[in-house]
Design brief:
With 285 residues, the protein is α/β, with parallel strands linked by helices. It has a single domain, classed as Nitrilase/N-carbamoyl-D-aminoacid amidohydrolase (4-Layer Sandwich). Strands 1, 3, 4, 5, 6, 7 and 15 form a seven-stranded mixed β-sheet that branches. A hairpin with a 2-residue loop joins strand 4 and strand 5. Helix 4 runs parallel beside helix 5. The radius of gyration is 18 Å and the shape is globular. 45% of the residues are buried.
Length: 285
């Protein structure tokens, strides 16, 4: 089984109205469709440009205004997934759960279904500046191409959760990200490679680029999309199937051959998935 994936380096910019955000999203989806992508990944916090709408202070609207756009966001991506017959991981959007804010990844299917996965590990900035709360559980998602996981940015830095997602059957983990400097970017990037090696899976990741001059904590972004494989003979030596130009407004596309994962798990140069010691460290309880 093969699946074609695209990852968008979403260029953040201040906007004046919803239609500008919508047009930008449609551009990337249409671009991915021209390459025949079956899955498209957008980055974390991709809806933060909406906080610049109506701002007169130079500091943007407060983060708790973002949930007001949830219905429009869902309608936009649900319609695009149907129209183009693709799965869209629409980055993350700040949602409300009771009186709590969550950083939520959305998956839109071609048949109109939508799935949500809250970010499980919240960075100090998200907690202190935006009062975001962590999610309370995780799922893997069944598609005609196989099972996938959605883990956002900081989540990928915790090997236990990725091991659990793989143990529940995921062969591909999509990791939307948002980092403001090289340190954060490389933390996420190196961890993506480590998780691909440890679990013999594909990781598809991307981040925001550009800047929002009117939105606090989104004034700087450092990002690059990458489609990452295990490091073994059937794959590129560096474990990179495709990657973008750092901080460029673009997308990258590659084909994932899921049968190769089974091959290396059974008879690769190393068999890290098969050789894990579940007698010492169980996958989950």
């Amino acid at each position: 089984m093969k699946m074609r994936v695209s990852a968008v380096q979403f260029a953040l910019r201040d906007i004046g109205q919803w239609s500008e955000f919508e047009e930008q999203v449609k551009h990337y989806v249409r671009n991915a469709s021209e390459y025949g992508a079956q899955f498209v990944l957008f980055p974390e916090f991709m809806t933060t440009p909406l906080l610049s709408i109506g701002d007169t202070t130079g500091f943007g609207q407060p983060i708790d205004r973002l949930p007001e756009y949830t219905d429009a966001y869902v309608k936009l991506f649900e319609g695009l997934a149907r129209e183009y017959g693709m799965y869209i991981i629409a980055g993350t959007h700040v949602t409300k759960a009771g009186d709590k804010l969550r950083n939520t990844a959305f998956l839109f299917a071609p048949d109109g279904r939508q799935f949500r996965q809250d970010k499980l590990h919240i960075t100090p900035t998200e907690v202190e500046a935006w009062n975001v709360s962590p999610g309370e559980g995780f799922e893997v998602f069944e598609t005609p191409y196989g099972k996938i996981g959605l883990l956002t940015c900081y989540d990928i830095e915790f090997p236990e959760i990725v091991r659990m997602v793989r143990a529940k059957g995921a062969d591909v983990v999509f990791c939307p990200s948002c980092t403001d400097d090289r340190h954060g970017f490389y933390r996420v990037r190196y961890c993506c490679h480590a998780r691909a090696v440890e679990n013999q899976i594909y990781i598809v990741t991307t981040g925001t680029v550009g800047s929002l001059r009117r939105v606090d904590f989104m004034r700087a972004n450092f990002g690059q999309a990458a489609i990452i494989s295990p490091n073994d003979i059937p794959f590129p030596p560096g474990g990179i199937l495709a990657e973008g130009e750092i901080n460029a407004d673009m997308l990258v596309t590659a084909d994932l051959d899921l049968s190769l994962l089974e091959d290396v798990r059974k008879a690769g140069s190393v068999t890290t998935w098969r050789d894990r010691r579940t007698d010492l460290y169980p996958d989950w309880k």
